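[scheduler] slot 2 assigned
[scheduler] job type: sequence-to-structure, two independent chains
[scheduler] chain ordering preserved from manifest
[runner] begin chain α
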Amino acid sequence: MSFLSPRANLALLVAAIVCVALAPLAVYPMFLMKLMCFALLAASVNLLVGYAGLLSFGHAMFYGAAGYVAAHTIKMWGWDGAAGILAGVSTAAVLGLLTGLLAIRRQGIYFSMITLAFAQLVYFVALRMPFTGGEDGIQEVPRPMVLGLFSLADTRVLYVFVAVMVGLGFWLIYRTVHSPFGQVLRAIRDSEPRAQSLGYRVLRYKLVAFVLSAALAGLAGSLKVLVFQIATLTDVHWATSGEALLICIVGGIQTLLGPVVGAMVIVTMENYLASVAEWVLIIQGFVFVVVVMLFRKGIVGQFYAWMDSRRERRAQAESALKPAHPTP
């Protein structure tokens, strides 16, 4: 959002808060919370793909594993909601660390295949381990108290809690991208040998970015369990990773709002076209083709590019209208 002034950014933030606050009056809150969870999952993928140049096919393992751990600790052990979410995020971060230690040493398709292999491993562990419930998953997860202060049993309270947590996740991504650490990640994405020649420890930066992305995906998975009160194999399936990547591409990679817009498009189609069953995937494929053909940078990315070109044309027109000063 380089073309937006600080005042415009503040106005956009206020508008987003107002929309989130008023949306439940017109839209089903459960649908909105699902949209926010998928937007955060896609944003975690976008952080890795768009700003670190690492294409992961395995984010479903962080999303699903965190959901399983949060569901088990809350239902079986009676943990507080905050503790259950923290356990899920920590599990995702540890998985990200273990996977990243091996995966970041490879580039391109080899990196992607390693993440996919780890994701399939986690999927079969979730299928066979007794505490995950196998194909039935962990059902009827209670909505607990949070820090002993308020209960998530009320849907309105749960909605506010999910909105705040997702907002904090997006704020963390924004601060990361616009920090010196984020600038180094962009340098690594653009030219890893050049960044390495400048003295940056490339592997360490990539590992930190991978673990942070995994933790954010785990936060999305933990929140999803509280919303729908169930953890299933669908959460750790490779198709969930593909859907998160699809959301990024549709909305726009390397943009903060891209995952939000992409989630609005994809999740809305899944929700309101559920009656046509298998046609949902066909329609999603058609939308994906249209976006790739017409919006090469995604919906938000193409809008940013249009605004930038408009600003450049305006600057050129203003410079052409300025009278030339004769040299003495």
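[runner] end chain α
[runner] begin chain β
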Amino acid sequence: MMLWSILLVSCISEKIIDTAQFITDSDGDGFSIEEDCNDNNPSIHPQASEYCDLIDNNCDGRIDEDESVDAYTWFYDEDGDGYGIEEQSTLSCTNPYKHSAYAGDCKDDNPAYHPAAPERDCTDPNDYNCDGYVEFKDEDEDGYAACIDCEDDNPKVFPGATEEAKSQCLTPTRTADYYAAQSSAYFDTMDYRVDMEEWPPYSDLVARWEWPPWLLLTAFSRENIEFTDTLLKLYPSIVTDRDCRGFDTQPFGRCYVTFYYDSHNGLGCPIYEEFTFNDQGEITFIEAWSDLDGFRPQTLDDPWAESENVYRLSTLIPGLGNETGRVDLEGEALLIASQNNNDINDFIYRAENWYSTWFTEYMASDDSMWSVGCGWE
């Protein structure tokens, strides 16, 4: 009996040893060495997830398959601009042919279109950067981009338009120094010390509008303004204090000046004055205000009247924005504008009857005009 027991134990032990040898699993990942392609690494076995790491993680004889857990998403990129089509994507550990890591291309047959494309031309209606927006806008659908159309809510106003165009439609054709110098030259005509060799560059239909307490339209045409400037020599003055500057938006010339009148004991009269120019560099409109509180058009924090809220007649009158700056007093555009603005209506009336309206205002004026407008009260 003893012998039998010993023999039985011996057989069982041999069987256990044989079985242990059969299921050898060095890394303890549950797979024998016969199944495990790397029995020294528990993360590698037939049921392991595949990764993009140049290793056969799941022992199927392949590495970095498209089904890898960390496979990248690539987008088909026909034009090779680095951006593909979101709807055409694939997974892969490496970049497939004609694919990109970035999507968002809205026109994949043209490398000029992609999310990083520049859009600098406001006159170009193409959405190069695929964001659904373009710099180009044309609200009035007149064929001209808003960035070059000074009135993009009016299809009758566009670059090259004549009757409808207002002064702000013009862009400078001269330097800022030119506009400043010609604006300053205007005051030479009223400074008796200056020996005038030539008149400032007035256009043939130049208008001068001087807001109250002054006399409103005090000249209309080159002939009229030269006449009145000559007449002003009867009231000797000097204009020593001048600060004239040029701007890249109309009015291109703007000045702060002070008149000193002999007839008023040399008292100073501060004036703010603006000058509108045409493409030929001629002055087409002169607009003046007393530079005293309650009269000037701008606020103290906007000394050069650059705010869009500044009310000035020169930017409201149709015709001043054509290349010559000629205003058609009988034109439809001006008549329509006058129906909505009393100052434009008054301008038309005075321009059509310049001498009589100016003379009436002149005869009705007295020294109170100077005391109020110059601050001599």
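[runner] end chain β
[qc] chain β: Residues 1-20 have pLDDT under 50 and may be disordered.
[scheduler] slot 2 released
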